[in-house]
Amino acid sequence: MHSSPPHGERISGRVAEIEPQQIRVMFDLAAEADGDLVHLEVGEPDFDTPEHVVEAAFEAARRGETRYTANAGVLELRRALAEKRSQETGSAVDPDSELIVTNGGVEALHLAIHAVADPGDEVVIPTPTWPNPISQTRLADAVPVELPMAATDGFAPDAGRVVEAIGPDTAAVVVTSPSNPTGKLMPETAIDRIATAAAEHGAYVLADEVYRELTYGETPRPAASVTDHDEWVLSIGSFSKTYAMTGWRVGWLHGPADVVDELVTIHESTTSCVNTPAQHAAIAALTGPQEPIDEMKAAFRDRRDYVVDRLESIPHVSADRPEGAFYAFVDVSALEGSSAEIARRLLSKYDVVTAPGTAFGDGGEGYLRLSFAADRERLAVGLDRIESMVETELGLE
Ligand SMILES: Cc1ncc(COP(=O)(O)O)c(C=O)c1O
What positions does the domain Aminotransferase class I/classII large occupy (predicted)? Predict the structure, then answer.
């Protein structure tokens, strides 16, 4: 009898090459651990979705909004998004052709990379970075070009280095501002320089702005409005972080009509559309009361200051004060071992779950990402434990 090859041999090389994310690895280790764990690895608000948003989904389902929607998304949602984007960018946005509603910002990025990168093309990605654009680029058979930013500068985005990396093979450059994991903003002049270089080479800027409205100073202007080359900017946004809606899976991309049209084609053959009641919830989030969002932001600001102040008081560790998002990127290089080893020790001996810096691409070695999407009391317990690990390991007691 003919014997079949092992199942594993039928996995495509493209997929087999993708390694599990280190954050996922920490989740799995934490799931196996018992004890009173403090979760500081979490990448989502710990707040509930505002009640009026939840209600809008129920109402939509009850009135029969339970069928497929247009591939590009419910027109009312695109109109609300277009109106907001027009105000924010200062130029008119056409809801019919320049916007697509996606399954979170993650799908918007995936579609954008697949739409613009041919096999072998390069996607320039400054690091440390949220790792998904790296694996998405590989899934498109394109080549991620990781550009580690200098730790000495607090990982401030160095536009000159990004511009130098843009060449004839570049299909896209990822600009994430504020950054996950550093919470740094990219200055407008840097975005403009990068967009100008990208435009010269016929490459797109993938402006990941999912944390743009979760900033602690003035809300930064969208990338598309700080350059004359906005026809080369694909802007990615999401309801996940701004409205505490991670599980609803609603994001969007705004860009030139011809590119958005291609995205709709891919979206049609992969997910068709976003969950219909969730799109109605998103309309309520955009057009309803914004107080719950302001309250959440104020809580994040308090926690940010608390976390950074506490970290400053622990000898031999340090973290810059993030300008946006809800992460502190902490220099723990004084401790022994790689950041993955430090994160594992912190989990196994001190019951604190964090994400190692190397989960965010080249350049994150020696760092841990702490999320402050946890309540003040748990943050205090987590920081006490981190302090005692540092004191014990460095013999400071
Ligand atoms: C920088 C960044 N971009 C995009 C996303 C995608 O989020 P979502 O797909 O929930 O919108 C995340 C999620 O953690 C993120 O950190």
Answer: 36-386
Which residue among 209, 240, 252 has the greatest number of ligand 1 atoms within 8 angstroms of its CB, and so is best to mutate? 240
Instruction: Check pLDDT > 60 for residue 1.
Output: no
Residue 2: predicted pLDDT: 65
**What is the residue-averaged pLDDT of the chain?**
95
**CB-ligand 1 contact for 210 (6 Å cutoff):** yes
User: Does residue 104's CB lie within 6 angstroms of at least one atom of ligand 1?
Assistant: yes
* Cross-strand partners of 328: 370
233: β partners = 205
Query: Could you identify the atom of ligand 1 that is nearest to the CA of residue 249?
Result: 10
- What structural domains does the chain harbor? 7-48+291-393 (3.90.1150.10), 53-287 (3.40.640.10)
Q: What is the distance in A from the centroid of ligand 1 to the CA of 249?
A: 10
Q: Running DSSP on this structure, what letter comes out for residue 174?
A: E
DSSP character at residue 2: P
* 208 Cα–ligand 1 center, Å: 8
Given a contact cutoff of 8 angstroms between Cβ atoms, the answer to whether 144 and 123 are in contact is yes
Quote the CA–CA distance of 79 and 351 in Å, as a whole number: 47
Q: Give the mean pLDDT of 177-203.
A: 97
Q: For ligand 1, what atom is nearest to the CA of residue 106?
A: 9
Q: Write out pLDDT tens, residues 312-340.
A: 999 999 999 999 999 999 999 999 999 99
Q: Atom of ligand 1 at shortest distance to CA of 107?
A: 9
For residue 119, the 8-state DSSP code is T
pLDDT score at 291 = 96
Q: What is the pLDDT of residue 8?
A: 67
Q: From atom 7 of ligand 1, which residue's Cα is the shortest distance away?
A: 105
Q: Which of 139, 122, 124 is nearest to 176 (CA)?
A: 124
